[in-house]
Amino acid sequence: MDFDFSWLLFSLPLAFVLGWLASRFDLRQLKLENRQAPKAYFRGLNFLLNEQQDQAIDAFIEAVQNDPDTQELHFALGNLFRRRGEYQRAVRVHEHLLGRGDLSRADRERAQHALAQDFLRAGLLDRAEAALQKLEGTRYQNEARLALLAIYERSREWAQAADVAAKLDDAEQASYATRRAHHLCEQAAEQFGKGDAAAAEALLHQASATAPDAPRPAIDIANLQLRQGDARAAFETLLALSERAPLALPLYAATLQQAALGAQRSGEALSLLQRRYAASPSVDVLEAIIALGGNVPLPDGLVDDDAPPTPRDGYIAHLAHQPSLIAASRWLAGETFADEQYHPQVQRALDQATRPLMRYRCAACGFEAHQHFWHCPGCQAWDSYPPRRVEEL
Q1: pLDDT band for position 27 (50/70/90)?
Q2: Which end of the chain offers a freer environment for a tag, N or C, measured as fewer CB atoms within 10 Å?
């Protein structure tokens, strides 16, 4: 049977025409989708600028559905979910991005960083830690290390915190020596709590070598030496500290006084405390002076030639330097009055009034506490508590 070539002549032009029509249809459909995606994107941007986050999320979801390959839309949508507190949806968006095989290295690192932020904001510290560790060696490395450091400090994992702080210190972008010393002091406190005083002492000396000017290691060393019955060594430790950190004296004045009594060096301690008190009056330093049996000079108008000054007159001398309800209450507690029946009630009222004034206040967040903290329980800041009480600030 012979093949009829006339059909071929007719079919080739027909196939060309049909192919051209199909391509035109695909182009029109693509242009329509591309027009719809930018409209949804710009509509979402407009909602975002008007602080209408719900409508912005809906618009971005529509844009992502029209153009699922656009990474920027996914990042915008994930950030919106995080800002709204919808952390599970933000995690799903960023995990979807990480699951894509066509994602560039830069976008993959960005998605990993965003995922870590989702976990941090959600309070999922274990998952945040794992996500942040994957950012080692990326452009987000230092930021990830800072976040890891905050996690370890918050969860009191001091050994891991010390390792991360050492890496940050090696990066030479800032000094973390004092912070590393705090980590070592915290580890020393844990070791002492377990009964290993030798390990605690070694850690404290390492902390002192790491940050020689920081007062905490020396104070903790002196306290440990006192507990071990070595008052002479404790006194020497604090005597050296008083030269390096005189402003922190109110924090260790009572320890210095105890060490001086145990080492039988009260006169030397008294001379030091009086000298420092004259330069910067403080109730804590004054009480250490009184405990050693010393006094501070009374103002000329209050000197009584018939009665020699007593240590308790130091409270009156302190009131001449600055008004202090704490000093007034301490003085009143030891006085004898004609109407002694009312004294306990008055004293109780004064003690109640002075209690808030004896607190320490964080300079970063304002959190107040009856004891001095090196690490604020409120805002997690280090060295944010001044060595003086609220009344003296």
Answers
A1: very low
A2: N
